[in-house]
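The pair is set out directly below:
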Amino acid sequence: MTPRVCVVTAGHLSTCPRMLKTADALHAAGYQVRVVSTRHVSWAWQTDLCVRKHRPWAWQVVNYDRASARGKQLSSGVRFRGAQAAARAAGPARVPLAVGIRGYSRVHDELVTAIASEPADFVYGGTTGALAAVAGGAHRLGVRFGLDLEDFHSAEQTDEGSALAHALAERIEADVLPQATFLTTSSPMIADAYSAKYKVRPAPVHNTFSINFAASRKRRGPLRLYWFSQTLGPGRGLEDVIAAVGRCGITAEFHLRARPIPAYAAGLASFQARVAPSLKVVFHDPESPDRMIELAQDYDLGVSTEDGAVLNHRLCLGNKIFTYLAAGTPVLLTATPAQARLAIDLGAAATLYEPGDVDALATILQRWNGDPNLRCVAGHEVRAAVHRRWHWEHADDRGALLTAFRNALG
C-alpha cells in the first residue's frame, strides 16, 4: 500500500515554501500526500490558489479569514487571547500545557481536527503554530510524526508579547521534540542551537530551490539590487542600503517585492529622496513562490540583510539567499554567523558587510558599480556553487528529507 503522509503548516500554502517543496518531493517519490494549511490573509489566499492549481496532491484548508470565515475568526481569537491571558496570569512555566498551546497557536484545535479528518501513516509539519498540532493530530490518528524547525522558535520574535511567546515555545518544544520520529531544520546553526537546548539533533535541510538560471547575465545599465519578503516593514536593514548608495553617489536601482506597510513605504521613499537622490526605489507586489526564482534573475545583487539583534536571525539561512542563488544572482549578505559561514563556501558569489556599517557597504557598492569584471566573476562563481551544492535536488537537501521519510516509513 502506498504510504500516506499529511504535511502541515499553520501558515498559508504560498508563504511556506518548505512545506510546499516537501509535498511536491513526497508526491514525486510515490507517497500519497495530503497538505493542511490555513487561510487568514486575503492576498496570500489568492496566491495559494495559483500555487495549488497544477499540483496533484490533496489539500485541506483551515479558514479563519475575517471576510470569509468571520465566526471562526472571532471564536479562535477569543480562545487565543483567553489562553494568553491565563498564561500571563499563571506564568508560562506553570500554566497547563493545553492552555499554553492554545495561547501559542491560534487555530491549534482546528489544525488537529483537519489532520485527523482522514487516514495517514505519518504526519510532518512546521511553522510556529503547527508544532503541537502535528503531534496532536498524529496521536489522534495513532501514527508517528516528524517536525520541521525552520526557525529557532524560542528566540525569533522582537515585538510586544515576544517574551510570552518564547516561553510558551519552550514548553511546547520540550514536550513534542523528544516524541518526534525525526526532526529537520533549515541551517546547521539552528540545528546546533536545538541540540544544545533540548539534546535532540535535527537534520539540516536548507531552503534551497531548483536551478532556474537566466540565459544570459550580460546586462548593462545602473547597478540593480533586489530584495523580497512577505512584508515590507521596519527592521530589515533596507535604510542602510539606501544610505550606502547615497554615500557613494552612484546611480542605482533598488527593487523591493513585498506587501508594504503603507506608512513605512512612504517613509522609506521620503528617506531615499533625502539621502540618495541618484537611487531609484521600485516597489513590486508579492508573487507566487513558483515565480520567485524567475523574478530574481535580472539583478546584479540579491540582498539578504539580517541585523543580528535576534538570535534566530544570527542562526538562520533564509529563503532569500537560496532564491537568488537558484536564479544565478550573486548575494549581498550581512555578516551574521550563519551567513558568514555560508559566504566562505560561496566565494566570489557572496559579498559580506557588518550590519549597520554603511561606510563599508558604500565601498562595496561603489566597487560593484565600477567593475564589470567583478560582476562577471561573481556570476560565474554563483553558477558553479549552485551546480556543485546549493540546489534543492542535492543529496544533502531533498535527498536528506526523503531519506528521513524512507527510514521512518520503511
